[in-house]
Design brief:
Layout (H helix, E strand, L loop, with lengths): L10 H4 L1 E6 L2 E6 L15 H16 L5 E9 L9 E11 L2 E10 L4 E10 L7 H5 L3
């Protein structure tokens, strides 16, 4: 796996890559207790979204990839301790724009999350210019 982006991401929070190939990615995440929104072990949706976003970034796999927009649906609740699998697939590429489909399934095979992520690959890192500014 040649991973070219998001090198400093915390995989305990966003998932561990199982497969990264051109235009596709698979991630695995077992949500820990810090991800539970309440005493029932319901995982806060932000963590599921973060996993899906990371999968989309790896499907594009460019050092400068950034998220521009996302259209998502949370379909089933996720529980702390239940393994999740995210699968991302590059659907379309036009210039700097990349459209990526992501699905997150529970350990039982239920689709918990679906999303379409609009990613962009600028020529330079999005913060490159801001770090060059003098005040």
């Amino acid at each position: 796996m040649d991973i070219r982006t998001h090198h400093r991401i915390d995989r305990k929070l966003c998932g561990t890559p199982l497969k990264v190939e051109p235009g596709q990615c698979e991630l695995e995440l077992t949500p820990g207790p810090e991800m539970a929104a309440d005493e029932t072990g319901l995982v806060h949706g932000g963590f599921v979204f973060g996993m899906a976003d990371y999968a989309a970034m790896l499907a594009v796999n460019d050092a400068n990839v950034v998220l521009g927009a996302a259209e998502v649906r949370f379909l089933k609740p996720c529980r702390q301790g239940e393994k999740l699998l995210a699968e991302a697939q590059l659907m379309d590429e036009k210039g700097k724009k990349r459209m990526v489909s992501v699905e997150v399934r529970s350990e039982a095979g239920d689709v918990a999350f679906q999303g379409t992520f609009t990613c962009f690959v600028p020529e330079e890192h999005v913060l490159a210019r801001s770090t060059d500014r003098t005040e």
